[in-house]
Structure formats: C-alpha cells, structure tokens
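Protocol step 4 of 6: record predicted structures for both targets in the notebook before any analysis. Target 1:
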Amino acid sequence: MTEPTMHDVARAAGVGVATVDRVINRRAPVRPDTAQRVLDAAERLGFKRAGLIQRRISEQQRPLKLGFLLQSQRSEFYQALGQALRQATQALHHPSATAELVFMDDLTPRKVAEKLHALASKVDAVALVAADHPVINQAVQELHAQGVPVFAFVTDLTAPNVAGYVGIDNRKMGRSAAWAMAKLCPRPGKVGLILGSHRYLCQEQCEVSFRSYLRESAAPFVVLETMVSLEDTNLAQAATLELLHLHPDLVGVYVAGGGIEGVLEALREANMPGLVTVCHDLTDSTRQALLDGLATVVLSHPREWMARSLCDAMAAAVQGGKERGRRQEVLPFTVYSVANV
C-alpha cells in the first residue's frame, strides 16, 4: 500500500493541493477552519507530515501582535492610515491578530529609535514611517538581530536588514506632479516646492524626479529653491506665505511633504485663484481644497490597499522567520481632481 500524498490529503479535505502546501510550508495565510480540515484529512489518511501540519496550525493560533509607528495624530493622513491599519489587521486570516499604534509628535531620530525599541518589545513585527537616518537604521539593525522584523512603509529606509518596503513609486509620483504642473499651468513660470524634510527618501525622490521632468520636458519652468516645513503645519503655512510674498508671479506650487493643511490655509489667505497646486494624499482637507479650487491635483497613496499589503507582509515575516528575504510591495497611486472626488 502506497503512502498517502498531498494530493490525497487535498482530495479528502476538499481543497486544492496548493492549499495543503500553504499549510505545510506557510507560503501564505490559510483560514483556520480550512487548515483544520487539512489536518483532519491528514490524520485520517495517516499522512506522514500530519504532525508538521499540527505544528503549523498551533503556530497560527498563537496571538499575533503587529506594531505600527506613525507620525503625528494631528495629521489627517495618519489618522486615516491608522484606521486602515487597524481594519487590515482585523481582516488577517489569523484568529487573534491585534494592532498597536503609536503616534509620534517628536520626530527627532533618537526619539524615533527609542519609540521603535519600546514598541518592538511588545509585538511580533513592527512597521514605521520615519526619516532615513543612521540612528534609526541602527535601531532597525538591532531589532533584526533580535529576530523582530521591521518594515518601512510610505517611505523606505536604507538599513540593510529592513524586512521590506510597502508604498508607492515616488519617482513616478514626482514626475506625475511635474507633468500635471506643465500641462495645467496657463503659462510657464516660477514653481515653488515644499518638502517636510530631505531625510524622507520618498520626498527626496519626489523632488529629484519633479525637477528632472521639468528640466527635460518643460524647460521654461523654473523650480525655486526648496522650502522645508519639518512636517509641521504652522511652519508649512509660514513657508508658503513667504514663498508667495517673495514671488508674486508664481504659477504653481508642489507640496511633496507634510503640513499640507498649513499650505492650504496660506493659499486661502493669499487668494491666488490662478495658482496650480499639486499635493499628496486625499483627506478631508485636500478634498475640500479641490472643491474650493485651492488644490488642482492630489496624488494619493492607496491607504487601504497599502495597509492590507503591509499587514500580510508582516504576518508572513513572523511565520517565515529570518529565512525570508526582503519583501517589496510597490503599489499604484491614485490621481484626484475636482472631477473625480
């Protein structure tokens, strides 16, 4: 009598062979009730790997804790992202997955590293939005050595052992912003550029690609020296007012970083209806800005999709251990105008 195979187990459990393989090798999450059917079939048939299937199910039933280190809760974007992460964690094929969210107002590298270590001590995997800084990257390396996978999302990190990145292609984001600026401005002229910080790789990539596109394809446009808001709404408002005061002939503004609420307040105060404004991420404020004519185009992260991809990647990293390589999920961004909000 031949030994039962995976095909036999799959047939007896009423599932595909790929599902049995996922249960055994943890290639992807499997619903608990489906995994139990596979185990029951394996034990009934005397499948030699039934014991391994039992261990896999036991591992999946262990509580899964995911930690997320986000920026200021005063930001509408991070409020919405936090909610998306909670929902994505609850939707995992895991009976007891929980999310712990930490919002930060102090974004200095040492404080971020401290918060990262503190959060990692309470969870199985952690993901963060942070500037690319040696102190933060060192913390990522230390946690990797301790067996805690650390993911970057929204903006990548250069730490060698970061477990993965989930976000959009920021080069395409910057070039799309430049394309919109060149096409929508009634005439070439001066363009302002506002970032949160060059330490965020996403913003640095957006700036470089924005400038590159205009230099290559719309040479008459002049991109002014970049203004930095440090992700602070008040500083962003002040920087925008200064920009508009120094350059009353400005034709456009690209906001590639945080503090957009302050920028919009400054534009409302300045009352320059012909100005083309391109910014990131659809929130209540930017949606209203589109309707009011303060914003022209909004390039937005797919928050729910990004949250689901990130939680799936984190759960897989916890199940797979260190043998899993870096995971990269680059998602498409959404383009909004007054016509489609």
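Target 2:
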Amino acid sequence: MNKGLKTGLIALAVVAIAAIGLYSFFAGNYNKMVAMNEQVKAQWGQVENVYQRRLDLVPNLVATVKGYAAHESDTFTKIAEARSKAGGVMNVSDEVLKDPEAFDRFQKAQNELGSALQRLLVVTENYPELKANANFMALQDQLEGTENRIAVERQRFNDVAKTYNVFIQQFPRSIIANMSGFRTKAYFAASEEAQTAPAVKF
C-alpha cells in the first residue's frame, strides 16, 4: 500500500469518525429535546386538569351560595364573567406554551377567576347558616383542595419548563434547538393578589 493511499484512508476514517460523532451529538440532543418538550406538554395537561376541576366546581358553589345570599348579584355576575373568560381560554392547545402573550392571557383569566372565588367566600362570612350547610362545607373543602393542587401543578410545570429551557439554551445545544424550532416556555408567576391572598378556610 503506497503512502498516499494510506494517508487518504486515514483521512477518510477521521472524517467518518467525526461525521458519526457529529451525528450522534445532534441526534442525541435532538431526541432529548423532544422528550423534554413532551414532559412540558404533559405537565401542561396536568395544569389544565386542575384548572378544569376548579371551573367545574364553580356552578355548584354559586348555586349553593345563591340559596342563602340571593341578593349578592354583583358578586355572582363577576364570578360568571370570570368563569366564562377562564373557560374561553381553557381548551387551548400546547401552542400557547410557545406564545408568551397567550400564556399571559391564560394566567390572567385564571387569576381573575381565583380572585372572584375569593370574594365569594369572603361574602359568605355574612351568612352563618350558609357556613353551617354541609353541601357548602363540602364544596369549600373541594375548592381548597383544588387550589392547593393548582399551586402544586403550577410549580411542577415551572420546574419541568425550567429544566427544558436551560437545556435548549446551553451552547452548543442552542444551535440544534434554534435549527429544530425548539423555543423556551413561559413560567407561571404569582399574581399580584397572591401577596395578600386570603385563605380559603373559614
């Protein structure tokens, strides 16, 4: 074997090894991004589930309170409007995760509903017989449990989204992410009211 052919084969082997290494790096990181993106979507589904649970509790809670406090129409109207608004953004695709403005609208609508429910529960303080009603107490417990689940699932979403965001932004993976269309996800933030939010318990 002459020297030129030997050098050519070594160069070809080096190029082949480099190409395999580059492919492995690209494919491995791309597949990891896909898996992490799916984790974010799955956790987003959990967030939607707990918000839907709260949305489903509202009519029963309002109906029970109306039986004792029918003249609190302003509060009921605000709840109905907030529920309608939250319901309008409830069945959103995971595309909202790529759009910070859509994500912000979703969060604001859910925060408005949460605030309206807090106002309703504050109003019930004026009705001792309502607070003694077993159905109301059960609904209140369910709402409290749901609010706790919302907080937990939002935190889990933020954790998964942060892991994903850090992974796709680190160099050189950021190149693969940009080429492949992977974008950072928005985070849930505490609402302004959360700083002084009243407890659901009585």
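Step 5 preliminary note on target 2. Residues 123 and 176 are 54 Å apart (CA to CA). The chain has one domain: 3-196.
Proceed to step 6 after PI sign-off.
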